[in-house]
Automatic annotation (TrEMBL):
Keyword Hydrolase: yes
Keyword set includes Repeat: no
Protein name as annotated: Gamma-glutamyl-gamma-aminobutyrate hydrolase family protein
SUPFAM superfamilies (alphabetical): Class I glutamine amidotransferase-like
Keywords: Hydrolase
UniProt-recorded Gene Ontology molecular function terms: hydrolase activity
Source superkingdom: Bacteria
Amino acid sequence: MRKPVVGVIGNAHRVENRFQVQMVGERNLRAVAEVSGGLPMMFAGAPDITDIGALLDVVDGIVLTGARANVHPTRFNVDPCERHEPYDIHRDEVALALSVACVSRGIPLFGICRGLQEMNVAFGGSLHPEIREIPGRMNHRMPRLENGEIHPDPTVVFADRHDVDLTPGGAFARLLGCEKIRVNSLHGQGILDPGKRVLIEGIAEDGTIEAIRIAEAPTFALGVQWHAEYDPQRNPINRKLFEAFGEAMVERQRAAA
């Protein structure tokens, strides 16, 4: 049996403020290759050059990664605000349609950070642009120095920062073998209202939604708000998630054989 091919979505980026490129963080690619056992294949988050149907004909799974840009508010009927930029409207168009298509076609789907948010919006949910502004919520953004710069040590930036309570008997609790986990936190935007088929399976200690699954999906269709791609080679929680994603792809291959 061949190695599963995993489509990993790209993000719009400008190099030297001149060259438009599509980028994927290497940690995502290594997590797919080293833990899920797949062959990572980046595809463009650009609808004019990414044919979703053709893409899903050649991949065994899809990863929607985290990203700097927020999902555009008009996708859930809210006016945009400069304060919450940047946006990546082309990735929005691809990722939202892709989320629905994956579930419909039974293709394993793993959403991480922005990817979880995209899955929620794709199924009719909404987002809050700045979770920390909701009374009682903590600051879920990455740690910064006193001068405002991002902390230079990645072990500090990606360190586990808060607990998440998992739904007893839910998909995450069964997969991870526990009902409480501790995760990193590097996001500003978060789920406000869950979509119609979005089931909440993990909630942070401040009430922020951290883990979801799509109801009645025929295969793996999970999203996490934390950055599971960080060190799944050693982090047991993140490793189990990427392993389960890989197993779902292998099962799909066997069923199609």
